[in-house]
């Protein structure tokens, strides 16, 4: 009987058995995506499952299949039409930094259809945005942020136009 990946050597009166070990996939877990049925469909498209022999070719196929599936559903590398509502002016270790605030157009997500300008957002929402940007670099050495404040949609459009001109050279 012959086994693939198993062989024996006999040297100096010692019999050694050798096994070519192959990595196996311990499990495939998808978090934060759809129902269990949808997750199973995605796993099926990826073509890998628990117990499969692992190799680079299978991994590349799974990555490509996953990317293709998520792109088709608008989840990967997507461009979403949005409307500007305001700008958060900041300063960091590199100088002045403006963060444009935008929401998806109503056709994509009508949840915040009432928000047309920064003043339409609640103080609590603005405080949460401000807090995020005040703290998002806290764990990076030699980096800091100072939040200057919010400005309205009209100011935001001017910031965007200036950035477009600078980009175009």
From TrEMBL:
It holds the Pfam family Pyrophosphatase. Residues 23-95 form the POTRA domain. One of its GO terms (cellular component) is cytoplasm. One of its GO terms (molecular function) is magnesium ion binding. Its EC number is 3.6.1.1. It is found in: Membrane. This is inorganic diphosphatase. Its cofactor is Mg(2+). GO terms for biological process: phosphate-containing compound metabolic process. Keywords: Hydrolase, Magnesium, Membrane, Metal-binding. Its main location: membrane. Gene3D superfamilies: Inorganic pyrophosphatase.
């Amino acid at each position: 009987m012959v086994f693939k990946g198993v062989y024996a050597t006999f040297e100096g009166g010692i019999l050694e058995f050798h096994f070519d070990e192959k990595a196996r996939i311990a499990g495939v877990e998808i978090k934060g995506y759809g129902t269990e049925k949808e997750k199973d469909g995605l796993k099926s498209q990826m073509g890998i499952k628990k117990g499969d022999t692992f190799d680079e070719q299978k991994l590349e196929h799974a990555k490509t299949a996953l990317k293709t599936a998520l792109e088709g559903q608008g989840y990967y590398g997507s461009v979403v039409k949005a409307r500007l509502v305001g700008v958060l002016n900041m300063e960091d270790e590199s100088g002045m930094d403006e963060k444009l605030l935008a929401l998806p157009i109503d056709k994509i997500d009508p949840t915040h259809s009432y928000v047309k300008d920064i003043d339409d957002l609640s103080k609590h929402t603005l405080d949460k945005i401000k807090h995020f940007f005040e703290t998002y670099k806290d764990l990076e050495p030699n980096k800091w942020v100072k939040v200057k404040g919010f400005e309205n949609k009209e100011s935001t459009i001017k910031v965007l136009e200036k950035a477009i001109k600078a980009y175009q050279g």
